[in-house]
Design goal:
There is one protein chain. With 280 residues, the chain is an alpha/beta fold. It has three domains: 94 residues, 4-hydroxy-3-methylbut-2-enyl diphosphate reductase, catalytic domain (Cobalt-precorrin-4 Transmethylase, domain 1, 3-Layer(aba) Sandwich); 83 residues, Rossmann fold (3-Layer(aba) Sandwich), CATH 3.40.50; 94 residues, Cobalt-precorrin-4 Transmethylase, domain 1. Helices cover 41% and strands 18% of the residues. Helix 2 links the parallel strand 2 and strand 3.
Length: 280
């Protein structure tokens, strides 16, 4: 089988930065415990390596002892987490992606200036939960065009719309177009990160040149699932987390396979998949 790899695939700048910062803390922790509030990134295999190194993952701040070292994960957190961790005298290592941090600043500024905030993305995603926490959790979260039709908007209010960093660009533009038809005073901030745009474009280009696509990444990774949806509109697509999920019998009919990976997928997992495909 011929294997072609997307020009942009695997760890993005923000994820690589977060993982390097967290690893450095674990390397130098000595006998002290290091905690994270939720998984560092949406890739189980990568996170498991950090747990083996000693990272303690907790799902709430209340479960983490006072005076502990706390890693803020790449998805970012709400403003109140910083306030509460400070009151618990925690030593914070902030690995929030700079692109996400920029959205926090935008939301905080516009909210303080009287704007209603609209976030395009999945309300249950930790990045969205964190962003909403910078405007007192009062944002309107939209994840479909139908939702725009169903929300109640005040024509006298000012609105600012931002996006989850991993949103699909075409989808964001469609949402904005619908909002602009309903809102007179709308400020649009396209906060989809450049790494996401690059991955989506290179995946689209590659999918047009191959017989099938393999998309590697966590099942809960938003940016990975966006790649899956983009590719399967063009060509048969297999969504996997590791090489073990590939079924040889289902791939043998294809001559040329394209490979891309989400921003939270480490190189070693990508390499294992490529080697497996080349052996077919």
């Amino acid at each position: 089988m011929e294997v072609r790899i997307a020009e942009n695939a695997g760890f993005c700048f923000g994820v690589k930065r977060a993982m390097n910062m967290a690893w450095d803390e674990l390397e130098n922790k000595g006998d002290n415990s290091v905690y994270s509030l939720g998984p560092l990134i949406h890739n189980k295999q990568a996170v498991d390596r950090y747990k083996e190194k000693g990272l303690m993952e907790m799902d709430s701040l209340e479960k983490i002892p006072n005076d502990s070292k706390l890693i803020i994960r790449s998805h970012g957190v709400a403003k109140k987490i910083y306030t509460e961790s400070k009151s618990k005298n925690m030593d914070i290592v902030d690995t929030t992606c700079p692109f996400v941090k920029k959205i926090h600043d935008i939301v905080k500024e516009f909210s303080n200036n009287g704007y209603k905030i609209i976030i395009v993305g999945n309300a249950a995603h930790p990045e969205i939960i964190g962003i909403n926490g910078w405007c007192d959790n009062e944002a309107i979260v939209i994840n479909s065009e139908e939702e725009v039709d169903n929300i109640s908007l005040n024509c006298h209010d000012k609105y600012c719309v931002v996006s989850q960093t991993t949103a699909n660009l075409e989808f964001f533009d469609r949402i904005v177009a619908k909002l602009e038809s309903k809102i007179e005073d709308l400020t649009v901030k396209n906060t989809i990160c450049c790494a996401t745009k690059e991955r989506q474009l290179s995946a689209t280009d590659l999918a047009k040149e191959v017989d099938c696509m393999i998309v590697i990444g966590g099942k809960h990774s938003s940016n990975t699932q966006k790649l899956v949806n983009i590719c399967k509109e063009i060509v048969p697509t297999f969504s996997i987390e590791t090489r073990e999920e590939l079924d040889r019998s289902k791939l043998e009919g294809y001559k040329v396979a394209g490979v891309t990976a989400g921003a939270s997928t480490p190189d070693w997992i990508i390499d294992e998949v490529i080697e497996f495909l080349k052996e077919l």
